[in-house]
Design goal:
Number of domains: 5
Distance between the termini: 45 Å
Largest sheet: 5 strands, mixed
Bound molecules: 8-methoxy-2,3-dimethylquinoxalin-5-ol
Shape: globular
Structural class: alpha+beta
Oligomer: single chain
CATH architecture of the largest domain: 2-Layer Sandwich
CATH class of the largest domain: Alpha Beta
Radius of gyration: 28 Å
Mean pLDDT: 90
Helix content: 25-40%
CATH superfamily of the largest domain: DNA ligase/mRNA capping enzyme
Number of helices: 25
Number of strands: 24
CATH topology of the largest domain: D-amino Acid Aminotransferase, Chain A, domain 1
Length: 673
């Protein structure tokens, strides 16, 4: 017994010591001991844990790679949505951002912003409970992502247990996982020499490594992390300034980018931008711009969000890289909705970290404006994940005999007439579901990551399936059998089996994803989420009329009409019916509400004047969390939110015994559910 206690203590001391040295090395970048000494501590801990396996704990520094390979990643509903950032591409856009911020805050002096390099990596969310890492997740569609905990655990700069004092019961942080430039080059050189797959840029390398189902593979990849925000901190008050958040993160052992700074006003932002741009090539990680955030966190709260991006932050992107190449031909691609897009087929060129051979020309107006022709020399641009585009034609190098591009009269795929709807720039193939291109695109969309996320059902395979007649419409994919698939070119029996199980897995989805997957014109992810949240069930959505649809946040008259037209089509209803018969399902209203919309079932009444946000905004934020906002108080009201000068509603709440919240409590509610 005495010996056991002694060993336990020894193990704990060793672990704490290793954690402390990790902190010195990764967070402070100031190691106190040489690598050989660190390795000795690790070996000692490993040998004790081997001798006393009962003492092994999940947060031991030895336990980074343990889990068995997964069949598929599980889903994670984000407790706090993972937003994206708005972009600025010019000084004017940054000045406009700064002006908007100050106008909304009513401040006419320069204000403080935090400035940080924008890493070209993958955004993740980490959750610690009682100091122990319990979850790592990808951004996904912002509302839900993939559970990549086992892979995150393999990243040595991610602490499995936090250090320091005054730790929150739950801490959720946002971070960027990346592959350092040198490690990326070495990894590619080695993979190339073994004849294995190489990555086109560090971002793809980070993303590809985190999407491995076998954590042992991820563990071989030289990944690193920088944390940049705290979105949940239960039990410890949130910081007052963004800058303080960096200190909190560091004090708990989380690695923060050392180039973060506080700057003042747009002038300070520009100085930081140029300084960072000058440093860009010597930084040990790839960046594609800088991020500015309003430093005062209560000002961030007052500014709130627009669509899926905070109003208080912006990414100021470095200019996209451009290269010169030649257009081999201009073709027309037919999209999911029949839109014909002119595309330039290029002599392959390496730009912005990837080789490109196609560039979008967007529409005929653009082709004419830029006067792009087959055979032209052009500058092409690629920025991050944005579709490559033709920037301009080098007129001096135009070969003789080129001709202006003309719009085809017939669809290049199915031969149907091409039509231009009045008032629209785009032209469309009128073939509808007769057109195999439109059917292929609809299936690609359905299977895509943000829709039903069918692993293994890639674009090439979908094209093959439609071309050989095995699949005509979306629902046909669920009738595919192993023999049919295994008979296809380049499809082994194992891949066929994997695809069948991925199809099975895909049947369990969410209502929002399913609505998005249907590919209704104008219904992106945010709108699909709003529709799911508001209507609760597909049946209700299908019966909702155009006027009622317009009451839903995010839905304007045009989209409302598209939704209504979509569900009026017998053919679409049939496909939905067949998909559901095949087993496609999602949690019914109450379950969705519990996870996605923590305030579902609650009704609030807003009264009086709020200081930090408008009543309209407060209403929207409550609705986004699933609450109803009513204009009259009754016994069913969950709470009345009372600002300054509240009148009769406040007294009615008092007489009915309804809870009354002030603005501070409202903000606490919105931010902590
Ligand atoms: O500071 C940040 C760095 C990178 C971010 C961020 C980011 O996305 C990759 N995204 C958001 C939404 C915020 N800050 C607020």
């Amino acid at each position: 017994m005495g010996e056991d206690k002694g060993v336990k203590k020894q193990v704990e001391t060793l672990r704490n010591s290793i954690r402390y040295h990790n902190y010195r090395y990764y967070v402070l970048d100031d190691p106190q001991i040489p690598d050989s000494e660190y390795d000795r501590l690790m070996r000692e801990l490993q040998s004790l844990e081997k001798k006393y396996p009962k003492l092994v704990t999940v947060d031991s520094p030895t336990q980074r790679v343990g889990a068995a390979p997964l069949k598929a990643f599980g889903g994670v509903e984000h407790a706090v949505p993972m937003l994206s950032l708005s972009n600025a591409f010019s000084e004017q856009e940054l000045i406009a951002f700064d002006q908007r911020v100050r106008e909304r805050l009513g401040i006419d002096r320069p204000i403080e912003y935090t400035a940080e390099p924008k890493l070209d990596g993958l955004a993740v969310s980490l959750t610690y409970r009682e100091g122990v890492l319990v979850q790592g997740a990808t951004r996904g569609d912002g509302a839900s992502g993939e559970d990549i905990t086992q892979n995150i655990r393999t990243i040595t700069s991610v602490p499995l247990r936090l250090v320091g004092k005054n730790m929150p019961a739950i801490l959720e942080v946002r971070a960027e996982v990346y592959m350092p430039g040198k490690a990326f080059r070495e990894f590619n050189a080695q993979a190339g020499s073994r004849g294995e797959k190489t990555f086109v840029n560090p971002r793809n390398a980070a993303a590809g490594s985190l999407r491995q189902l076998d954590p042992r593979v991820t563990a071989q990849r030289p990944l690193a992390i920088f944390c940049y925000n705290i979105v949940r901190s239960v039990g410890v008050p949130l910081a007052v300034e963004q800058q303080e958040v960096f200190t909190q993160l560091k004090n708990w052992g989380l690695r923060v980018c050392p180039q973060n700074e506080v700057v003042i006003g747009s002038i300070g932002c520009f100085e930081y931008y140029h300084k960072t741009q000058d440093m860009r090539d010597s930084l040990p990680y790839e960046i594609d711009g800088v991020v500015y955030k309003v430093n005062q966190l209560d000002w961030q709260r007052r500014l709130g969000f627009v669509a899926r991006a905070p109003r208080w932050a912006i990414a100021y992107k470095f200019p996209a890289q451009e290269e010169l190449t030649r257009i081999q031909e201009i073709v027309f691609q037919v999209g999911r909705t029949g839109a014909l897009t002119p595309v330039a087929k290029l002599e392959p060129v390496f730009v912005g970290g990837a080789t490109i051979s196609n560039a979008s020309l967007h529409n005929m107006d653009e082709v004419q404006r830029k006067d792009v022709r087959s055979g032209d020399w052009v500058f092409v641009r690629r920025a991050g994940d944005v579709i490559p585009e033709v920037v301009k034609v080098v007129q001096e190098r135009r070969p003789a005999g080129t001709r202006e591009v003309s719009l085809p009269k017939h669809c290049p795929v199915c031969g149907s007439d091409v039509v231009r709807v009045e008032g629209e720039v785009v032209v469309r193939c009128s073939g509808g579901l007769f057109c195999s291109a439109q059917r292929k695109e609809a299936i690609k969309h359905y299977a895509s990551r943000r829709a039903l996320d069918i692993e293994g059902l890639g674009n090439k395979l979908i094209e093959q399936l439609v071309e050989c007649g095995l699949v005509e419409h979306i629902d046909d994919i669920y009738d595919l059998g192993i023999e049919q698939l295994a008979g296809l070119e380049r499809m082994a029996e194992k891949s066929a089996k994997n695809l069948i199980s991925a199809l099975e897995v895909s049947k369990k989805t969410t209502l929002a994803r399913f609505i998005y997957a249907l590919g209704i014109r104008g219904v992106g992810e945010a709108t699909a989420q709003a529709l799911a949240r508001h209507e609760g069930t597909l049946e209700r959505l299908m019966e909702t009329d155009v006027e009622s649809l317009q009451q839903i946040p995010d839905v304007g008259p045009i989209v409302a009409r598209q939704i209504s037209i979509f569900f009026d089509q017998v053919h679409n209803r049939e496909i939905i019916h067949k998909l559901r018969k095949a087993g496609v399902q999602w949690p019914q209203h109450s379950v969705v509400a519990a996870q996605d919309t923590p305030l579902a079932g609650n009704t609030y009444v807003l009264t009086g004047t709020l200081e930090g946000l408008t009543r309209e905004e407060a209403k929207r934020r409550l609705q986004v969390l699933g609450a109803k906002v009513s204009s009259s108080v009754s016994k069913k009201t969950t709470a009345v939110i009372a600002g300054e000068n509240s009148g009769s509603k406040l007294s009615k709440a008092g007489s009915l015994g309804v809870e009354i919240l002030n603005e501070k409590q409202l903000m606490h509610l919105i931010e902590n559910v």
